[in-house]
TrEMBL record:
Family the UniProt entry places it in: Belongs to the NADH dehydrogenase family.
Domain FAD/NAD(P)-binding residues, every copy: 16-325
Spans traversing the lipid bilayer: 394-415
Species for this entry: Deinococcus roseus
The protein's name in its UniProt record: NADH dehydrogenase
Source organism phylogeny: Bacteria, Thermotogati, Deinococcota, Deinococci, Deinococcales
Length: 434
């Protein structure tokens, strides 16, 4: 059953579109709406954005910002630059009343009810705090920008402490880093950590004599398993990079619990751990009032090819929170920024078509490629099944990321950072590696 009472609420009443979250899904849904319906916005079409954020964080640069290649602030774009024609409300979405078509938002001035005719659910995912016990207390994740800041501050404090202590075993403990998760984010963050130490050598001479120990724990037998079947050359290159960067890979080990100084695996074994950083996938919550919406086993909202939540013509979704059939292939669309961008774009297009009472179009995006960086000039990239490594792959990734940054002046800032870095970076001869 499709519920579409929204657009026919009252002939002269403006259509109210509410976007939840300010990630890639909402940005690109908004852009599609503006592209198709610009003259109507503010007249008979109102767009409201509800999000807890003031800025959009470009997650693709997380590793580069962690390493210090680009300032964390340059990965952030103020929302007023991205959503100029939307009314913005900052607050925490607490629930949705599907029957009365209202969103409950907790703002500084209390709980507010925001009515909608069409709702775009782009709330994304969260770090896996619920799947890995103790992670919130004893580890770091990188989804939020505050975490990234906290992590960098903590790393510097650790280096300082290692610099100051005379106790060798304490120094070893301080320079021990344990990463959980060997997907794209995991390998990038492991390499970025190495990059961070290279950037810090001059400030912390201890790094000229002591080797930071970085280990990467992975649940599967192979790192980057998604590459293995179709792109083994890229996987081999990635492994070689990690080896060159002296990152110790511990495969076939699933971490279930993090404690002070150790991790507990799914078999109950205890592994000594250093400072823990987790990039071990995502978790999803269920908003109050949406419990009855169809979901998959990972709690992702099941949507049809038009990007509508199954059975709900005025609920649109895409990105990490959604399970949408991948066009031309088996299984759902992957959970990454590219698919959130393309899904959000399509959701916005179809939403505009619904408002215009035009037929909706099925999602058709076949995929484009994937990439991971191991530091300046070292990357892997797959574009339409063609495989690239090294400098070429690095430049391709850079070009794509700049193109997908949500606001051109911020993309220019990041480009400048990279150009400056090229002059600043000399091959690191000082960081002790063995
Ligand atoms: C460290 C890291 C590195 C990554 N690197 C890459 C990469 O290199 N390439 C790539 O393709 N993908 C990468 N990803 C994945 C990519 O970031 C996600 O797939 C993408 O952000 C999903 O987009 P989305 O629109 O679904 O959600 P998001 O972009 O996460 O946006 C969700 C929005 O909803 C808001 N929100 C959530 N809950 C609430 C609430 N209750 N109330 C108010 N607001 C709320 C959030 O604050 C946010 O604004 C990375 C992810 C991480 C964490």
């Amino acid at each position: 059953m499709q519920r579409t009472k929204n657009t026919t609420r009252h002939n002269s009443a403006p259509v109210r579109v509410v976007l939840l979250g300010s990630g890639y899904t909402s940005i690109h849904a908004y852009r599609s709406l503006v592209r198709r319906l610009r003259p109507r916005i503010g007249k008979d079409l109102h767009i409201t954005l509800i999000t807890r954020d003031t800025h959009h964080a470009f997650h693709g640069w997380t590793g580069d910002a962690l390493a210090g290649y680009i300032p964390v602030e340059h990965t952030l774009t103020p929302l007023e630059c991205i959503f100029p024609l939307a009314q913005r409300m900052q607050g925490m979405v607490e629930g949705v009343d599907l029957q009365h078509q209202q969103v409950q938002v907790k703002t500084e001035s209390g709980i507010q009810q925001v009515p909608y005719d069409h709702l775009v659910i782009g709330l994304g995912s969260s770090d896996p705090f619920d799947r890995i016990q103790g992670l919130a207390e004893h580890g770091f994740c990188l989804k939020s920008i505050h975490e990234l800041h906290r992590l960098r501050t903590h790393l510097i404090a650790r280096l300082q402490a290692a610099q100051n202590t005379q106790d060798t075993s304490e120094r070893e403990r301080l320079l021990h880093f344990t990463l959980i998760g060997g997907g794209y984010a995991g390998v990038e963050i492991a390499a970025a950590l190495r990059g961070f130490f290279e950037q810090q050598v001059t400030h912390h001479p201890i790094l000229q004599t002591c080797v930071p120990r970085i280990e990467l724990i992975h649940a599967h037998e192979e790192l980057l398993p998604e590459l293995l079947a179709r792109y083994p050359r890229l996987q081999r290159y990635a492994l070689q990079q990690l080896q060159d960067l002296h990152i110790q890979v511990i495969p076939g080990t699933r971490i279930q619990k993090v404690k002070a100084g150790c991790c507990v695996t799914s078999t109950g074994a205890t592994l000594p751990a250093g400072m823990v950083i987790a990039t071990a996938g995502i978790s999803l919550g269920v908003l109050k009032g949406t419990e009855m919406l169809p979901r998959d086993e990972r709690k992702r909202l099941r949507a049809n090819d038009h990007m509508q939540v199954q059975g709900h013509g005025n609920l649109w979704t895409a990105g990490d929170i959604a399970n949408i059939r991948r066009p031309f292939q088996q299984g759902p669309c992957p959970t990454n920024a590219l698919w959130a961008i393309m899904g959000g774009m399509h959701a916005g297009d179809n939403l505009a078509r619904a408002i215009q009472r035009k037929p909706l179009r099925p999602f058709w995006f076949p995929g484009l490629g994937q990439s991971a960086s191991f530091g300046p000039g070292r990357a892997i990239a797959e574009l339409c099944t063609l495989q690239f490594t090294g400098q070429v792959a690095f430049l391709m990734r850079l070009g794509f990321f700049l193109m997908f940054m949500p606001h051109l002046p911020y993309a220019c800032l990041v480009l400048k950072d990279w150009l400056r870095l090229r002059q600043r970076l000399k091959p690191s001869t000082t960081l002790k590696t063995a």
